[in-house]
Amino acid sequence: MLEIHDLSVKIGDKTILKDLNLKINEGEVHVLFGPNGTGKSTLIGTILGNPKYEVVGGEMIFKGEDITNLPMHERAKRGIGILFQTPPAIQGVKLLDLLKIIAKRDEKEILKMAKRLKFENFLDRDVNVGFSGGERKKSEILQLYAQNPDFIMFDEPDSGVDVENVELIGRIINEMLDKNKEPDERRKSGLIVTHLGYILNFIDADKAHVLYNGKIILSGKPKEILNRIVEEGYEGVYNDSTR
């Protein structure tokens, strides 16, 4: 689904990502851990095509196509979607109107999902205006569900959300990523960025990575990686990886 080869990225004069390599196969869900300021948001923004991030080396291949120099809207057309950590509020645009514009699903399905999210009463409100953290997450998930992308990135889906809603969001993310499909059916792929790892209690992830100082320093099973981070801290994991 996505292959990243020797990716180096700058913001202004500062290099944030350094020769980063990552491969996510069709149907796989990967988790990205890392301390604040280590490059997690930079990686997501670069995959998305945000012009703020300058690719100075390497390439990104999505479904067999080099997208390294494609603009953001072309990547979205090809099937890349994102749940932002802090999505913007859009005055004057009703959520239901936005859903109709981006929808690749039947409107009845979208309304059914809104009810499952206990969010049907928000459809006639301006997008994210006056929404709480949990309500913004539900709004973003509903937009992603309507867009129906092949590759979905989730930036801190468990931040600012209470325990009850984290479980609900986690179960729906699992469904969106087609984790219940048979292996021979076409399935979606995902990349979940999390700092605390609480969302892993509700999401069936295949592999985890630790991003530290702009490089992936460790990969493995999600729960095992999280346990090491809890026990050793990110610096301890980094020191072990360099021995």
TrEMBL record:
It comes from the Archaea. SUPFAM superfamilies: P-loop containing nucleoside triphosphate hydrolases. Gene3D superfamilies: P-loop containing nucleotide triphosphate hydrolases. Keywords: ATP-binding, Nucleotide-binding. It holds the Pfam family ABC_tran. The keyword Nucleotide-binding applies. PANTHER family: ABC TRANSPORTER I FAMILY MEMBER 6, CHLOROPLASTIC (PTHR43204). GO terms for molecular function: ATP binding; ATP hydrolysis activity. This is ABC transporter related protein. InterPro entries: AAA+_ATPase, ABC_transporter-like_ATP-bd, FeS-cluster_ATPase_SufC, P-loop_NTPase. Residues 2-238 form the ABC transporter domain. It comes from Methanotorris igneus (strain DSM 5666 / JCM 11834 / Kol 5). PROSITE patterns: ABC_TRANSPORTER_2.
